[in-house]
From TrEMBL:
E.C. number: 2.8.1.7
Name recorded for this polypeptide: cysteine desulfurase
Top-rank taxon: Bacteria
The UniProt record lists the keyword ATP-binding: no
The organism of origin for this protein: Arenivirga flava
UniProt-listed SUPFAM superfamilies: PLP-dependent transferases
UniProt enzyme class: transferase
Annotated catalysed reactions: (sulfur carrier)-H + L-cysteine = (sulfur carrier)-SH + L-alanine
Coiled-coil features, chain-numbered ranges: none
InterPro entries with a match to the protein in the record: Aminotrans_V_dom (IPR000192), Aminotrans_V_PyrdxlP_BS (IPR020578), Cysteine_dSase (IPR016454), PyrdxlP-dep_Trfase (IPR015424), PyrdxlP-dep_Trfase_major (IPR015421), PyrdxlP-dep_Trfase_small (IPR015422)
Pfam family, one: Aminotran_5
PANTHER family for the chain: CYSTEINE DESULFURASE (PTHR11601:SF34), CYSTEINE DESULFURYLASE FAMILY MEMBER (PTHR11601)
Alphabetical UniProt keywords: Iron, Iron-sulfur, Metal-binding, Pyridoxal phosphate, Transferase
Length: 383
């Protein structure tokens, strides 16, 4: 029985076009872009080209793109880097549902740099209301970080309004768009952000490459110190092939984004209806409408999320109990408890995330597998 992969928010396969574009820079044209000779210049040209193409997708200038080792590093650079370089105050705000890369970076500001950090609550759908942010902002607020879309529940944040609120008190605004890339427009001017994180492996590029958009004039304290690459904002020899792969994959993800999102959203909505029909006790988590097109996340009260996952895997369906990063931890997800769910309910979460390659037949099979899994667990519970 072929496996059905419904965990695309955890990662995606590398697109053939990205791999083919990367190949020359891993083999013959393997130069270090800082070298002055022909091989180096060839690599530097490829890096420039990748930077231009990533910038074009974001509506940014090439010099505003900093290549990083992925989303985690870009979030660290944005949160710590922007906060520490801005002398106006020591107050930072993050949404309570941010990814650990943002939350832990903010915790370092608190623990090691004397910052006060507010984790601003979200509503029951996971949305951070601009009014809530406004009431938490202070005159000495330096940085606000709110993701464009959540990795566990898919809820989309009103980033443009939130950025406007942050700017009204003179704070910088960063958004983690790792999950939004390929699904939502990433036009940095329309979003009004000072910094934006993307990660390659969520859009068909390899793991270990990402980028931070940093608005011109937004100063950052580097996180990685060394040879001064990336205009001093991120030292370390650049992953030329990775950057090329990111540029190609991101362009492709953007090219048919709207049509793909619409088609997947229709399939996802039918899937949600089927799940709620076979498991009326289930509860959809996240915003019912303002959510990523590919995300269907639920709580199944009366079960354990991890047990449902195991049962599903036995039936050939791969999904996750929340974010892959937090998987394996005993703690209930901070995202789900931030919605107001109690710990016990939060432990019953299962997240299905679709891709363009997902078929209706696969989803129908996944629903059958889910029904069998829940029946099996109920049977066990009754014995
Ligand atoms: N931010 C979000 C919202 C994510 O979902 C992830 C990965 O799951 C990251 C950041 C981290 O990105 P990376 O895996 O490239 O370090």
């Amino acid at each position: 029985m072929p496996e059905i992969h419904l965990d695309h928010a955890a990662t995606t396969p590398v697109r053939r076009e990205a791999l083919e574009a990367m190949w020359p820079y891993l083999t013959g044209a393997y130069g270090n872009p800082s070298s002055r000779h022909r091989l180096g210049e060839e690599a530097a040209r490829a890096l420039d080209d990748a930077r231009e193409r990533v910038a074009a997708v974001l509506g940014a200038r090439p010099a505003e793109i900093v290549f990083t080792s992925g989303g985690t590093e870009a979030d660290n650079l944005a949160v710590k880097g922007l906060a520490l370089a801005n002398p106006r105050g020591r107050h930072a705000l993050v949404a309570a549902t941010e990814h650990e890369a943002v939350l832990e970076s903010a915790a370092v500001l608190e623990r090691m740099h004397g910052f006060a950090v507010d984790r601003v609550p979200v509503d029951a759908d996971g949305r951070l209301a601009p009014a809530s942010l406004r009431s938490s902002l202070r005159d000495d607020s330096t940085l606000v970080s709110v993701m464009l879309a959540n990795n566990e529940i898919g809820t989309v944040q009103p980033v443009a309004e939130l950025a406007e609120a942050a700017h009204a008190v003179g704070a910088r605004f960063h958004s983690d768009a790792v999950q939004a890339a390929g699904w939502l427009p990433l036009d940095v001017a329309a979003l009004g952000v000072d910094a934006l994180t993307i990660s390659g492996h969520k859009v068909g590029a390899p793991k270990g490459i990402g980028a931070l958009y940093l608005r011109r004039g937004a100063r950052v304290e580097p996180v990685l110190h060394g040879g001064g690459q990336e205009r001093g904002r991120r030292s370390g020899t650049e992953d030329v092939a990775g950057a090329v792969g990111l540029a190609v994959a991101l362009e492709l993800a953007e090219r048919d984004r709207r049509a793909r999102a619409d088609a997947i959203e229709r399939m996802r909505d039918a899937f949600i209806r089927s799940v709620l029909a076979i498991a009326p006790e289930a509860r959809l988590t996240g915003h019912p409408a303002d959510r990523l097109a590919a995300n269907a996340s639920f709580c199944f009260p009366g079960t354990a999320g991890e047990a449902v996952l195991l049962q599903l895997e036995e039936r050939g369906v791969l999904c996750s109990s929340g974010s892959a990063c937090a998987a394996g931890s005993e703690e209930p997800s901070h995202v789900l408890t931030a919605l107001g769910l109690d710990d016990a309910t939060a432990q019953t979460a299962v997240r299905f995330t679709l891709a363009a390659s997902t078929s209706e037949a696969e989803l129908e099979q996944a629903v059958l597998a889910l029904r069998a899994s829940l029946d099996a667990l109920r049977g066990l519970a009754m014995r």
